[in-house]
């Protein structure tokens, strides 16, 4: 494993560390529906099912001193935060008799379980973007509730929310994220393994109403995870993009490339983290169409892992389809 993978491990890196080939296959299925997992760094929580961290909210400024006069003592301002993990869990059951009738029963059962894997991947992606533990205490708080107030004065992360001008409920967002252990990263409970855990519970008797019973094969799915934002400067949200007003030549509606340029300038200049842009397929489509209106030298494409990756100023643009086109305006 490379030094970068050791310090900033994705789910694929951690699966390789565990030596768990089955989990690697599962992670690839999840990545197909939520490309954030290609970049997301995962760190074991330091406080049981939660993660405590300290963020710096102010720096000492110093003071000009006259000879024979003193200056006041100062200290850096910090704030302690604790993010928690949520437990996403479900079971699948298949009729044992159906399993026995299949020509390739193991492959058939895996295909049945794949739907659960896909669904949980989408739920995790939705929570990462929109989750709010105040509304759903069992879940964790994602990005949108942390970057949802343009008019606020404290904290100062309003400067990292760009307003694309949409006013109704047909809006979407584009997110810039710098993944790193010191900026933004996923967390999983201490003493556990990161990622979706799948366990074959074997045969069980299922009881239905009226005393009816039949034999099933049961699988348990469990994913315990959360997210920590240590440095708000490492996230930029382009909010209020009215998808109904977009045009292929940017003659009306949001000028996506102008907004991307503004967002890129807000990121920290020096970073060793993984930087990526996340948008849904509607935005991805209009980015392609708006890029042909002229010679847009900021857009490039290359091959990564057998896939064509579009980049803006060298930053990969990932597709995340759980990003809604029905977001309300962020004020």
UniProtKB/TrEMBL annotation:
<dbReference type="Pfam" id="PF20911">
    <property type="entry name" value="GP7"/>
</dbReference>
<dbReference type="InterPro" id="IPR048813">
    <property type="entry name" value="GP7-like"/>
</dbReference>
<protein>
    <recommendedName>
        <fullName>Bbp17</fullName>
    </recommendedName>
</protein>
């Amino acid at each position: 494993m490379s030094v970068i993978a050791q310090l900033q491990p994705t789910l694929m890196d951690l699966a390789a560390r565990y030596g768990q080939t089955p989990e690697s296959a599962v992670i690839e299925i999840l990545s197909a529906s939520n490309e954030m997992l290609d970049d997301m760094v995962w760190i074991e929580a330091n406080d049981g099912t939660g993660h405590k961290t300290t963020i710096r909210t102010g720096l000492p400024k110093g003071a000009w001193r006259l000879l024979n006069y003193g200056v006041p003592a100062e200290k850096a301002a910090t704030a302690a935060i604790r993010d928690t993990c949520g437990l996403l869990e479900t079971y699948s059951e298949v009729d044992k008799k159906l399993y026995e009738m299949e020509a390739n029963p193991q492959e058939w059962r895996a295909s049945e379980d794949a739907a659960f894997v896909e669904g949980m991947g989408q739920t995790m992606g939705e929570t990462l973007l929109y989750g709010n533990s105040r509304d759903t205490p069992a879940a964790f708080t994602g990005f949108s509730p942390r970057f949802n107030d343009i008019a606020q004065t404290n904290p100062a992360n309003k400067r990292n929310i760009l307003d694309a001008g949409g006013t109704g409920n047909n809006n979407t967002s584009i997110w810039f994220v710098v993944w790193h252990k010191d900026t933004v990263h996923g967390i999983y409970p201490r003493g556990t393994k990161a990622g979706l855990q799948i366990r074959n519970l074997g045969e069980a008797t299922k009881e239905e109403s009226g005393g009816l019973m039949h034999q099933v094969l049961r699988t348990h799915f469990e994913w315990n995870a959360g997210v920590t934002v240590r440095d708000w400067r490492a996230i930029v949200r382009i909010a209020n993009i009215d998808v109904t007003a977009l045009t292929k030549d940017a003659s009306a509606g949001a000028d996506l490339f102008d907004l991307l340029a503004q967002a890129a300038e807000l990121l920290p200049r020096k970073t060793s983290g993984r930087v990526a842009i996340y948008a849904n397929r509607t935005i991805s489509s209009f980015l392609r169409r708006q890029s042909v209106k002229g010679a847009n030298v900021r857009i490039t494409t290359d091959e990564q892992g057998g896939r064509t990756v579009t980049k803006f100023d060298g930053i990969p643009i990932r597709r995340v389809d759980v990003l809604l086109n029905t977001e309300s305006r962020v004020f």
